[in-house]
Specification:
3 helices; mainly alpha
Length: 113
Amino acid sequence: MYRGKKVYFSASKEIIQQLFACNRISADIWNACLDAAKQHQLTTSKWINQTQLQQTMKGKFPLHSQSVQAVCHKYLFSRDSMHQAKKKGISAARYPYRKKKYFNTKWVDKDSA
């Protein structure tokens, strides 16, 4: 079960555009994860692991490193969940393959860092 709470806020048009730009960058990270995983699979015949994927993405995108890592973790979680579904006999399950235009950016709580 998912629980969520809508939080309303107001921001200037420029800030809203910057937030959407961050979501487009997060989508670029997701797409780069897809490409890196596919390239790694083709060259080594093995799945890319978390460390290798994060090293591949490191320093390439203008977002906080933990936001980039969050997208990498989301990709790996999606891939591993699909693998578990295949083991359970769910034949409709597919590996993550679809390119994205927008992907919700995860923000780091700087007070807890």
